[in-house]
Specification:
68% of the residues lie in helices and 0% in strands. It is mostly helical and 194 residues long. The longest helix has 28 residues. InterPro entries: Homeodomain-like_sf, HTH-type_TetR-like_transc_reg, HTH_TetR, Tet_transcr_reg_TetR-rel_C_sf, TetR_C. It holds the Pfam family TetR_N. It comes from Paenibacillus aestuarii.
C-alpha cells in the first residue's frame, strides 16, 4: 500500500498491520464505543501519533481494521451467470452478517447515528466498496446481454440489499439462504432480459 497523498514516509506495512489487527481485536473484546486510540496504540506497540499519521480518527482505523479482515471473506464471484453471481454475493454477505463477526456491523451502524465520523467511515469504507462490487457484477451482466441495457443498477442494489439490512438492523428476523434467494429472484426479475 502506498501513501494516501499525505506528506511523509509511506506506511510501514508491518506497523500498519499491527494497528489494524489491534483495532480489530479490541472491537471484539470491548465493542466500538469503549475503544480509544490509546488502547489501539498500546496493543499495536506504536504511538498515537503514528496512528494519526495514517488515519484521521478512531472510526477510520477501527472500520479499516474490521474491513481488512472482513473483505477477505467476501470475494466477488464470476461464475459466468449474473444471477448466480448476485445470488452468491448476496448469500455470502448475508452469512457473514449473520455471524458473530458480521454482527459488529450493527454496532458501527448504531454508532454512526450519533457520530458523523463513524457514519462516514462506514459508508466510504464498507458500503460504497460493496456497492461497487455489485455494480461490477451488474455491468458484466449487461455486457453479456443477460440484463436489460436500461437497467438501473443503483436502484437494483437498493432493492437487493435493503431488505437484508432491514432485517439485520430493524426486525431481527432470520437471515438465511432461502430469504436471500427469494430477494435475489424477485429483484432480478426487474432487470433480466426477456
Amino acid at each position: 500500500m502506498t501513501n494516501t497523498g499525505k506528506r511523509g514516509r509511506p506506511r510501514n506495512m508491518e506497523t500498519m498491520n499491527a494497528i489494524l489487527q489491534a483495532s480489530y481485536d479490541l472491537l471484539f473484546e470491548k465493542g466500538f464505543a469503549a475503544i480509544t486510540m490509546e488502547n489501539i496504540a498500546e496493543r499495536a506497540g506504536v504511538s498515537k501519533a503514528t496512528i494519526y499519521k495514517w488515519w484521521p480518527g478512531k472510526a477510520a482505523v477501527v472500520v479499516d481494521g474490521y474491513l481488512s479482515a472482513a473483505s477477505q471473506r467476501l470475494p466477488v464471484p464470476d461464475t459466468g451467470s449474473v444471477y448466480e453471481d448476485l445470488l452468491t454475493h448476496a448469500t455470502n454477505l448475508t452469512r457473514f452478517l449473520a455471524s458473530d463477526e458480521g454482527r459488529v456491523i450493527t454496532q458501527l451502524i448504531g454508532e454512526g447515528q450519533i457520530d458523523p465520523g463513524v457514519a462516514e467511515a462506514y459508508r466510504s469504507r464498507y458500503v460504497q466498496p460493496r456497492r461497487k462490487e455489485t455494480r461490477q457484477i451488474i455491468d458484466r451482466g449487461i455486457a453479456r446481454n443477460e440484463l436489460r441495457s436500461d437497467a438501473n443498477p443503483d436502484l437494483f442494489i437498493d432493492l437487493l440489499y435493503g431488505p437484508i439490512f432491514y432485517r439485520l438492523t430493524m426486525t431481527g428476523e432470520q437471515l438465511d439462504d432461502a430469504f436471500v434467494k427469494h430477494i435475489v429472484t424477485l429483484a432480478f426479475q426487474g432487470i433480466q432480459r426477456s
